[in-house]
Amino acid sequence: MNLGMYIERSARFWPDRPAVLFRDRALTYAALERRSNQLAHALLKLGLQRGDRVAVVSPNRPEIVELECALYKVGLVKVALNARLAPQELADALANAEPLACLAGPEHRSMVQSSLAAAPTVRHLIGFDVAGEATGESAWLDYEQVLAQAPAAHIHIEMRADELAVLHYTSGSTGKLKAAMQTVGNRMASLRKVIMGRMHADTSDVLALCGPITHASGMFIQPMLYQGATILLLERFQPAEFLAMIEKYQVTMCFAVPAMIHALLAEPTVHTRDLSSLRLVSYGAAPMSPARIREAWQVLGPVLAQGYGAGETTGGVVGLGIADHARAIAGERPELLMSCGRPFCESEVQVLDDEGRPVQGDAIGEICVRGPDVFAGYWREPGLSAEAVDAAGWVHTGDLARVDREGYIYIVDRKKDMLVSGGFNVYPSEVEKVLAQHPAIYEVCVIGVPDPHWGEAVKAVAVLRQGAIATADEVIAFCRGQLADFKRPRSVDFVDQLPKNNNGKLSRKDVRETYWRGHERRVN
Question: What is the pTM of this model?
Fold first, then answer.
């Protein structure tokens, strides 16, 4: 088995079709096959061997796609690092992964260079847009010259399902660096579930990706290339530009996190651009409120589908499809908009209680996954790996949920996000879903803050819509009748924006830190 072999097949089937569009330039399937072969041969010539790690840190660009294909072909391990990492985070990741080679663009070369003292294993530096320059003591090889000096003959080796393919560094919320080990078998399972699921495609499809393809967005690259579709790659997410690209290239599918959809809804040109080519807007990586889903359905059309998964499950394992959304919005089962959907992968997905038994009714358990999607543990973290995957093979996601009579899963919250106020458990996302329906609120984060009487008091930290006005008392009153009194916010702070982590997700940890600074413990 080898994922890279399918690039050669796609190049035979559709040699002149664009595999990747970037800055109005097309990389055809034939060119992708040729260039990934050249890179694979070049890396082997540099002395890299099967199982060695290769890091890349860069904003989105086609060379990342070429690199991924090359690494798969010759059994090298991809270490794709978020382009928004701080210098110390990058140094820590390189030190942890111990790659033998690192590729970077002009935006990150000096940062990589500064990290080499912490990452002595890095022997080869390959730069995009280098043009023969040298930085410090270590010369950067020019990516284009590296390819030009290597043969273009097809190459791929047979791989075992249990061999390591990717180190996926997770954003996490604890601050501890960790990399999910995804195997060749995991990535093959991911390929199967995507092409058999909501992103079944053909050569007429164009998938727009504007999130970092080093992370969640990148999970769709190989499935699209397998099917002969075109990937429209954008360097970054800019709402007006994104909408213009949908119209210009007749984009049929895209993947976005909820924050991106919020921004699209606030962009005036969303009402004037021709978005009729869209047949799927897949969203995930964070929950979206039912109120915002209904708004997106009205503006973007009946094209929304949600996916739930993690690096530990090699992408999505639960989905709420377009038909599920339509069913909810039509009024048949409106509560489905609060669900992340039903399992669609090969793996088992269960919501288990503390004794490992499936929960029913209103009982709350933890979402657990077992099967070919489950990762091989955390890189060089046996303790963390043992905590994540139990003796029966279940990976414990840390997400608390309940299951309804039709098998739809409803996430209540993360285990670590739960707060205790007056002896009662309060799940922030439940409160946030209510507050998101307030007409003046654009975005909100609910946390527990120290309280001498209640232990923790519920606080809402909110961003108002542009031009909107609201008071704390009004927001608290809005929750009456929708939330039990112990769940309602006891205070509301208004801010200009909420902090996000490197993947664009709300950083609840950073919101809490403001209120817990100076306290020895983060529970009260």
Answer: 0.84
